[in-house]
Amino acid sequence: MCQVDEDAHKDAQLETKAVLSVSQKCMKCKEGSAVLIIRVGDAFCGDCFKEYFVHKFRAMLGKNRLIFPGEKVLLSVSGGPASSALLSQVQEGLRRETSKKLRFVPGIIYVDEGAACGQSLEERGEIKSQLETIFRASGFPFYIVHLEEVFNLPSSVLLSASSASDRRNESYKEAVDGFIQRASSGTQSETCQGSSSYKEVQTLLSELSTQEWSGEVGIVTNKSQPFTPEQTEAVRTLLASVKTLTAREELLKTLRQHLILHTARVRGYSKVMMGDSCSRLAVKLLTNISLGRGAFLAMDTGFSDPRYGDIAIVRPMREYSSKEIAFYNRMFKVPSVITSALDTKAPEKASIHRLTESFISKLQADFPSTVSTIYRTSEKLNTACPRPIADGELTEKCLLCLCALDTGAEEATAFRATLISENLSCNRMPATIPALGVAKQQCCASGGEQKESCGDRVDGCHSVDRTSFTPELQTLLCYSCRLIIKDMTSVNSIPEYILSEAERRKRRAQMKEEIQDFLLNPENDAGEVTVS
Amino acid sequence: MAAPIDLHLEFGGGAELLFGGVKDHHVKLPSQSEPWNVKQLLAWIKTNLLRERPELFIQGDTVRPGILVLINDADWELMGELDYMLEDQDNVVFISTLHGG
Questions:
Q1: For chain A, which residues lie within 8 Å of any Cβ of chain B, measuring from their own Cβ?
Q2: Complex confidence, ipTM
Q3: Contacts of A503 (CB under 8 A, 6+ apart)
Q4: What is the pTM of this model?
Q5: For burial by CB atoms within 10 Å, which of A363, A440, B19, B43 has the most?
């Protein structure tokens, strides 16, 4: 009986939906004829839509007050619609008259992932040249980084540096006022900022001991290829060694993030802007929960991502639905280049990302407030302050994603239960579950003082069998990164910088355990030493 | 009898990958007894233009969720979606807002 009433009500609702027609007027200015419907029933005309779009961008930046005037910001552009819209908004914002101008110094980075998707060199070259035309037209410095360069990264990429300097102590308002004053008094504010940030970059680089690294910048010379065919092959092997598309996409995302981070550090940028739209972030939120990254949702989908310390990842497009972006790009002829990605034309159930995306878009078709509900939920998530650890050591962060390790499995957790059942199914005794500390690893240099130098590529040390390295890599990773590594058939194709950083952390933890008894306990009085 | 209509179809956002990479199509719809509406146009596209993977473009009667349709640069929701009657020289744009095509 209730059923019958429900159906009747639904029919009535469906009929009322068809009332909208061309002759409808824009709901804002009430004059122009509507061309677009946003959200549930808001019809806008062309000019009002443009105003709404631009205003939202500036409001997003202004509300969060994270981008200080004169700061160098790297725009990560993939060529897709959202990042192209981001680029055009930044261009538009910088063009305005001084009082309303956006006040940061942008650069552009593009990561060429052609090697991962199996594109030929000609295809990649063609896409690159199309993008170059777009980037050159913007007038900002741009950097084109290839995925193959991931093999040249230093392991300092996996460290999170302390956030830069005294800039943070200034409040936002003071910074803006100071900037305006300097600009109006005619001093060269650009060079001022430039020199101070240069100094900061140098101190930061020395802190991280980053090697000299050349990425392509500005004009590309076709003669010198920044990567070799062996490296392309190595990338293919690496991705082929991952069994599922889900893990492959996650791994690719991690590598891309490392490349962007490194470029930003080397070139002196303190912020990176990503072009994640609302719809994309809603998909990411649900996907991340399925992948085991529920603890890091705030960082992965929030406006700012502070996990790298010195570089903040910022997402100013997070309030735009993909419909709005697509419409804006169409109406205002924003150039974008579509490249095929790992999951182009993949069937619906190929990976968790695809499945979630199709689930949400289908739900959105019937219930138009789906995406915005998910978005509002993500807005309420806050980044938790990390619990202060006595020695503030790096071992507490995941090796790959630099989030806090969430796998400290106490005795009675579900996580511990999965570890036990996994080992039982491999017919191993529960006693040999990979210890939550460090597994003893026989090193050829037995003396304690020589442990550090063992890290040099002395040939004798290569006796360590890398295939047994998998369980040991796991203890350095958070839960979701463990799942990625578990999916790989062999760890040998992982880039060197990850493996060497993992070894370094293992050795440190091992050393620390050995000298544990001699360390001063911070709670005790100074000078008192606990003896075992 | 309705006269044959000329249409300018455009595909963007990755949807063109399903049509051989070609973004612009000028097509001529054959004449038929009733005027063409968008629903029939979709069926026509499925049989005549779509090269591969029809499920990535069409779902049942309508386009797959996530594909935007613009008729003469206006949202098709304002024009009546599937029931809009096509006219000669109309411009219909399909933009995919999803990841892969």
A1: 18, 20-22, 24, 34-37, 43, 81, 279, 322-323, 325-327, 330-331, 338, 340-341, 343-346, 353-354, 357, 361-362, 364-365
A2: 0.91
A3: A455
A4: 0.79
A5: B19
